[in-house]
Amino acid sequence: MALALSGCGSDEDEGIAFGSVGYVEGFFGAVSADEPNAVLVGRDILSSGGTAADAAVAVGFAMSVTLPSRASLGGGGVCLVHDPATGSTEALDFIPVPGTSNNPRADRPSAIPALARGMVALHARYGELDWRSLLRPAEDLARFGHRLPRAFAKDLNRAAKPLFADPEARRVFSREGGGIPIGENERYRQLDLAALLGQLRINGVGVMYNGPIAKKIVDGVAEAGGTLTVTDLRDWLPQWRATFIQPFDLNFVPYEMHVAPLPAAGGVLSAQMIGMLREDDRYLEADEQGRLHLLAAVGQRAYAARAGWLKEDLTAVDPLENLVDGPILDDMMESFEPDRATASAALTPPPVRVRENPAGASFVIVDRRGGAVACSLTMYNLFGTGRVVPNTGIVLAAAPDRGPRNPLPLGPVLVVRPSNFAFHFAIAGSGGVAAATSIANVAARSFLAGEPARDAVDAPRVHHGGAPDQVVVEEAMGPEAQAVLRALGYTVSTVPRFGQVNVIYCATDLPPQAETTVACSASGDRRGFGMAVQAD
User: Of 37, 74, 110, 119, which is least packed with CB atoms within 10 Å of its CB?
Assistant: First the structure.
């Protein structure tokens, strides 16, 4: 669902103070996320004069209340952050790592809770509003309640039976603790989580990682069968890391595409796919049937190439900067033939099937000055370990492993102009192995071909992961398009839908370089139940 909003009043007109909702007049930015309550929180922060980073902090904490199945305080993720004032774009890595396994009662290995420290690092470097004002909305949602959103209700119904085997999860997420899931639109309160958020608001995030509250969390994790020590909490820190930058020209305009470094491998895959589509104007010059073929072929080749550069420990065989440069992309497309498919077995190296858990969440935000944040969040599984830390409301993220619970799907993408540091495009997604493919599908239609974000997100998608050697298309693709792919030699299967993305696309520079109209569109994904808001 998308909702366009007018800008609010200004302090000159109505005496509204900086930090109050309605401070900014005119265009105040855009927010798109997987959960509507969190989107509205982000909108209010932007209209209060906050930066994209301020809004991201508020959205991240709000989603820990309204979508704890995918974005709990027990999880974490990775964000890309663009600052137009300095021209810098960097990655904030707060990807959850395994906790120490020294609990004899541990039967559900868990990750170190990372979200809160990730958000405080983001605020410390790029925030402007008072920290307390950014946590207050999440605390209020938990303390005073909100209508259970459809996105969370769907997750809760899907996981209720195994989830409610945990007494604390049953107490928190069922009607009066009786084992019946709280229903969509029912009022939902989380008083334990509200109390913890209140402590973080008043005393800072440090209390969650050191001191009596940290000890309480560690003891609760042990009771919930997880793996965590006081030392884990105290010593773990998020990292600011350099992005990989892919420079390119589009319509004779220079751009830079930024993706996060490993282990968030989804951005590398997306950049490879988008790069192959962009090189020699392949996508722009192809007709609609040719575009279907290209989308399938670049996905097949990107996933095949990953089998060659990705180690078991999720590091790269080659330096990351060599993975998506022009020569590599040209080599990957050497075997491409416009009139027929290439067998996966003929690719070097051949693709290898890698399992990736589809549960995750994302959001993208841009402010009126062109500052932008794009984040992918994970708990490595729906509801993480399926356990709630007693008396805290924290849903524990599962410990990452070499199986499907890994950070491979993470990977937001940001595109800016290096000449003036203007923002143009931000996208982040979830959906396991289909996350990077979904990003590439939407980026091709919006950023490369200039379609509005809403149309690009709604369009049916094509996925080819190489192994198995078949193309997966959404049912909305229709029989004619499927027949085109089969005629090219692809084995085609259909699914109702796959992937979920959030995107903001600005056809013009943001901030504008002259007295021009801001031409930005934001879109959430109807495949989920999120929302996008923007000021027109």
Answer: 37
